[in-house]
Amino acid sequence: MSAAAPVAPVAPSGPPPLDLVGRSGVGPREASAWSPRQILVTNLRAIRGRAYPRWRGLFREKSWVAFEILLPFLSTSAFVFVYRSLHAPEAYVGFVVLGGVMSAFWINVIWMMANQLWWEKSQGNLELYFAAPMDFMSILFGMALGGMVMSSSRALSILVIATVVFGVSFSVSSWVLVILVFASTLAALYGVGMVLASLFLVWGREAWHLGQMLTEPVYFVAGLNFPVARLGLLGALSVGIIPLATGLDAMRQLVFAGAPFPIGTPAPEIELAILVAMAVLSTALARWMLAVMERRARRDGRLTIRWQ
Amino acid sequence: MSVMSQEPRVGAASEPAASPAAETPTTATPPASPAVPAGTPLALQVESVRRVYKAKSGAVTALAGVDLEVQAGELFGLLGPNGAGKTTLIKILTTLLAPTSGTAKVFGFDVEHETKRIRRIMNMVAGGEQSGYGILTVREQLWMFSQFYGMSSADGWKRSEALLDRVGLGEKKHQRVSTLSTGERQKMNLARGLMNDPWILFLDEPTLGLDVEAARSLRELMLEWRAAVPGRTILLTTHYMAEADELCDRIAIVHKGRILAIGTSAELKRRVQRESIFRVELDRLEGGVGSIAHLPGVVKATTAATDGGQAERQNVAINLVLEDDAALGAVVGALGTHGSRILGLQKSEPTLEDVFVELVGRGFEDEDEPEEHVDDPEAST
To answer: How far is CA A187 from CA A95, A142, B47, in A?
Structure first.
C-alpha cells in the first residue's frame, strides 16, 4: 500500500487580507523611529518617485513635439534668417541655435518648476507631500531631476534638427569644460526654479503673470539670441545673476572657439565658478524658503489648503 | 438625567456649548481595545485645542477649545455639518496646521514639534480628492506614493498591485488615472492611504459624492483594514449620520468648533431617549388603548396606523411610551389577560439626527453656513 500523497494546502478563497506589510510586533512608536540610513533612503526614493511622472510624461505627452520642439525651432529659425540676411558672422547662427537649445530648460524651469507647487496645491498634492515623511526638498529635487531629463531630450531634439537644417559647425575647445558648464548650468537653473517654486506659491494667483514676466524679459537679458556681451553693463550683470545668461555665454565660448565674441564677459572657467556658486546658493535658499513656507503654511492655514 | 451624564467625563468641549441641550457635554470613557498591546499610548490626545484663522472679515474661530481622547484601535467618528471644524481638526492632527493654542498628540507625538515621527505612521484620504497625476496609470500612481514613504521599488510595485486587487481596481491598474470614475478614483485614493500601512488613518469625508455601492465597498474596506492588525486606528469625519452610526466605535458631535458630546452611538441615542418607545401589533385589543394606558410605567399609549394589506389592517397597532423597558412586562401581561395575541413587537430607536437636534436645536439640513466662515478655508471642505 502506498503512502498517501501529501495534501496541498487549500488556498483561502476571497480577496487577500489587508495586512500586506507585516509590521506585526512593531508598535507605532517603534515604527516611527527611523535610522539616519532609513531617512536618507526614503529621501532618495522620494526623489525617484517625484521624478517618475515627468519621465513617463516624456513618452506619453505627444503634444510636446509641437509645443516644445517645433515652436522654439520656428523662433530660432527667424533669428537665423535675420542674421543671414544681415550677413552676420556664421557663428551667430550657432549662437541662436544654442540659445534655442537652452530655452527648453528655461521654459521647463518657469512652467514646470516655479509654477508647479501652485498647481500641486490646486490638485491637493501639496498637502499629501507635506504629510509624507520625506523632506520636502526631495520633492523639489525630484521635480528638478525629472524636468532635466524631460527637457534634455527636447533640447537635444532642437539641437539636432537646427544643426542639420542650418548646417551649424562646432569648434569645441574643451569637452570637459563644456560638460562641467552644462551640468552646472542645469544645477543653477533648477536651483533657481526651486527658489521660485516657493515664491510663486506664496504669491499665489499672480504666479501665472510672474511666469510670463520671467520668460521674454529673461530671454532678452540672458542674450538668448545674441551674445550677451552686446548688452554691455547689463550683460555683465546678467552673467553675474542669471544662470541662463552665464551658462549660455560660457558654452558659446567653449563650443564656438575662435568665433568673433564681443568683449565684456568673463572667461568660461570663471563663469563655471559663478554657476557652481549660483547652484549652491540657490539650493540653500530654496531649502530656507521651504522651511519658511511650511512654517507659514502651518501658521496661516492657507498654503496647503486647496481652495486658498 | 440622562444615562450618559452619570458616566465619567474624559474628553469634552472645554467651554459651554451653544445650545441649552449641549450645556453639559458628556463623554464616555474610551473603550480599551482588547487586542492592542499594553502600554500603547493613546492614538489621539487633544487638549484645549483652539484654531483661529485670519480672514478678510476678521478672526474666524474654527475650533473653540476641543478635548478628545481616542484609544489605539478605535474607529472614531467626527460628525458635524459643513463648517463645524472637523477638517480643521484633521489638518492639525495630520501636522498640516498648527493649533493656535492647546496641545495635540498622535500616539504620544506632539503635532507641533514631532511632525516627522507622526508622518511616518499616518496617512490621510479626503473625499473628492484629485491628487496625483492623470498622466500616470493607476498602478504607477500608487507606486509613486510608495516612494514617498521609503518603500523599495519592488515592494512598491508589489504592494500597489495587491492593494489595487483588494480594492477592486485590479483590472484598471494599467488605465490612466484621468480615466477613472469618481468611485474608482476614491478607491484608488483609499489604496494610496493604505500604501504605507499607517497606524492611524485620517479619513475626511471619504465617501463624499459616491454612489451607494461604492460607498459601501469603501466602508467594508475600512473596517477590514482596521480589523486586520490590532491597534490600527481610524479617525473619520463625516456628515452622513448613517455612516457614523454604522462604522464608528465612538462618535463626537461637532458644531461650530466645539465637541458637544462624545460616546458610542447607543450612548448618544440614550441621551435623547429618556423613555422606552415600543410599537406593538396585536390581533385585537378589547377596551382599546385606554385599557393599558393606566398600567404602572406606561407614560402614553396611542393607536398607530397599520401597514400592509386588508388582513393586516384588521389588526391593531399601538405605540407605547414607557418609563423604562421593565414596564413592558406588565403591559404584555395585561394584554394576555385581555385575550390579545401579540403579532409583533418593535422597539423604536432614536437616530443620530435626533441627537444632533437635541444638542444643537436644529437638524443638519437646516444648518446655515456661518457667515464668518465664508472666507475660511474650512467653508468649502
So the answer is: 22, 13, 46
Residues, chain A, total? 308
Which residue of chain A is at minimal alpha-carbon distance from B112? Answer: A298
CA–CA separation, B84 vs B373, rounded Å?
Answer: 10
CB contact under 8 A, B37 and A27: yes
Q: Please say if the pLDDT value at position A19 is more than 70.
A: no
Residue of A nearest to B62 (CA): A301
Pairing of strands B250-255, B233-238: unpaired
Residue B71 to chain A, least CA–CA distance (Å)? 13
Q: Measure in Å the smallest separation between the Cα of A266 and chain B Cα atoms.
A: 42
Query: Residues B20-79: pLDDT tens digits?
Result: 333 334 444 455 454 677 778 899 999 999 999 887 788 889 999 999 999 999 999 999
B40: nearest CB among A23, A27, A33: A27
CA A299 to chain B, closest CA, distance in angstroms equals: 6
The answer, yes or no, to whether ipTM is higher than 0.90 is no
- Higher-confidence position of A67 and A179: A179
Is CATH 3.40.50.720 what the domain over B4-121+198-271+354-380 is classified as, yes or no? no
B148: chain A residues, CB-CB within 8 Å: 42, 45-46, 49-50, 129, 132-134
List chain B residues with CB under 8 Å of A123: 130-132
Alpha carbons B52 and A39: distance in angstroms, whole number: 34
Which of A262, A277, A259, A265 is closest to A173 using CA atoms?
Answer: A259
> Which residues of B are less than 8 Å from A298 in CB distance?
95-98
Q: pLDDT tens, B100-110?
A: 999 999 999 99
8 A C-beta contact, residue B350 and residue B269: yes
CB-nearest partner of A131 from B98, B119, B146: B119
Which pLDDT belongs to residue B160? 94
**Cα–Cα distance list, A279 to A45, A178, A180, A183, B8 (Å):** 22, 17, 13, 10, 61
| Overall CATH class of domain B276-348 | alpha beta
What digits encode the pLDDT tens for the residues B286-327? 888 888 888 888 888 888 766 655 555 578 888 888 888 888
Dihedral through CA B323, CA B325, CA B328, CA B329, nearest 10? -120
In chain B, residues under CATH classification 3.40.50.300 are 4-121+198-271+354-380
Q: Which residue of A has its CA nearest to B97?
A: A298
- Cβ-contact B205, B127 below 8 angstroms: yes
- Record: contact A32-B120, CB cut-off 8 A: yes
